[in-house]
């Protein structure tokens, strides 16, 4: 089957159907490729139920990379919005059918040791699959974990109940698992959990399972300095910053070469939208996920406001995902 090409407002989009790296005639196609008013590209992939698929992208036809993996789908219509498109002169897309086990859905981050898959779960909880390992951040019972591989590494930022729950840690941890936590969290772990836990104080670092973990101070009006951690994870030459609950602090602004940042924004516990905007403009990650953005009122509009206020002049991709 010949690839189909579509000229779309200055971007060239390649629509192709692949299996095992080869183009094949299968009942799978892009049924919508639409440039949105903010210049992002909305993709809709129609595909058979019961299989898993990955959308790949490229700036040229010789260098494809993973963009998003869909789970074994329960619907024939799979949708994805490419927030990086406004910053690229050329963009190609193709769909690949996947085989294998322990596949999870989520955004891709290319590293020197294979792609990391990032999947938001709820509020401050997300998982990261990389190099055959599963990393859980702040697992709590408000998120669900059905179908996910068990954790090889769990990181907890602080003791608040929307970040820390001992029963959930037991539910998600695998037979060989390590826990990274500040002292206050360690003190609240069960006796069995303490045997696999490592205490990491602010500004301390440890290498574990091929992941370089650095604890960043996380503090503000509702969180005392030295009690909670943010984390920078070094994986395959990439750096991921996870804020936890914090204000706009100089320790965050001093971080360098951050590829992906997860930044909290709700009041009164973390940053205002304005503070988060200023912090991220100083930090300048390549990609930012607003998370932990539900306000006391239950409103979840902070993320969209943040994206609007941050703007596009610095070339920072803002990924709005379904955390609630």
Mind explaining what this structure looks like?
The longest helix has 11 residues, at 273-283. The protein has a twelve-stranded mixed beta sheet. Strands 18-19-20-21-22-23-24 form a seven-stranded mixed beta sheet. It has a three-stranded antiparallel beta sheet with strand order 5-6-9, with no helix packed on it. With 324 residues, it is mainly β. The protein has two domains: 4-98, Immunoglobulin-like (Sandwich), CATH 2.60.40; 106-318, 4-Layer Sandwich (Metallo-beta-lactamase, Chain A), CATH 3.60.15.10. The chain has helices at residues 166-172, 183-188, 191-194, 250-253, 273-283, 302-310, and strands at residues 4-8, 11-15, 17-19, 22-23, 29-35, 41-46, 52-58, 65-70, 77-82, 92-98, 106-109, 116-122, 125-130, 133-137, 151-155, 173-181, 197-199, 205-208, 211-220, 223-235, 238-242, 260-264, 287-291, 317-318.
């Amino acid at each position: 089957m010949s690839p189909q090409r579509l000229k779309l407002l200055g971007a060239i989009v390649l629509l192709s159907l692949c299996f095992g790296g080869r183009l094949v005639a299968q009942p799978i196609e892009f049924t919508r490729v639409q440039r949105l008013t903010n210049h992002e590209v909305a993709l809709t992939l129609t595909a058979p139920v019961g299989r898993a698929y990955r959308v790949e992208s490229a700036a040229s036809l010789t260098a494809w990379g993973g963009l998003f993996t869909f789970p074994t789908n329960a619907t024939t219509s799979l949708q994805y919005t490419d927030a990086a498109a406004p910053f690229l002169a050329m963009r190609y897309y193709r769909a690949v059918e996947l085989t294998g086990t322990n596949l999870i859905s989520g955004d891709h981050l290319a590293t020197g040791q294979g792609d990391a898959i990032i999947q938001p779960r709820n509020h401050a909880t997300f998982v990261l699959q990389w190099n055959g390992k599963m990393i859980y951040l702040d697992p709590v019972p408000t998120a669900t974990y059905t179908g996910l591989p068990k954790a090889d590494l769990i990181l907890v930022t602080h003791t608040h109940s929307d970040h820390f729950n001992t029963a959930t840690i037991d539910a998600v941890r695998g037979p060989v698992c390590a826990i990274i936590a500040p002292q206050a969290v360690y003190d609240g772990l069960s006796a069995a959990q303490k045997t696999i836990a490592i205490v990491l104080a602010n500004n301390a670092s440890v290498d574990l399972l091929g992941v370089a973990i650095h604890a960043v101070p996380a503090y503000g009006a509702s969180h005392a300095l030295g009690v909670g951690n943010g984390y920078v994870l070094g994986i395959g030459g990439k750096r991921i910053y996870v804020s936890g609950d914090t204000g706009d602090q100089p320790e965050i602004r001093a971080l360098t070469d951050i590829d992906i940042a997860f930044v909290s924004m709700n009041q009164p516990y973390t940053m205002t939208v304005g503070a988060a905007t200023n912090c991220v403009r100083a930090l300048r990650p390549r990609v930012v996920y607003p998370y932990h953005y539900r306000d006391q009122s239950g409103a979840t509009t902070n993320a969209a406001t943040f994206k609007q206020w941050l703007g596009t002049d610095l070339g920072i991709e803002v990924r709005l995902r379904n955390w609630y």
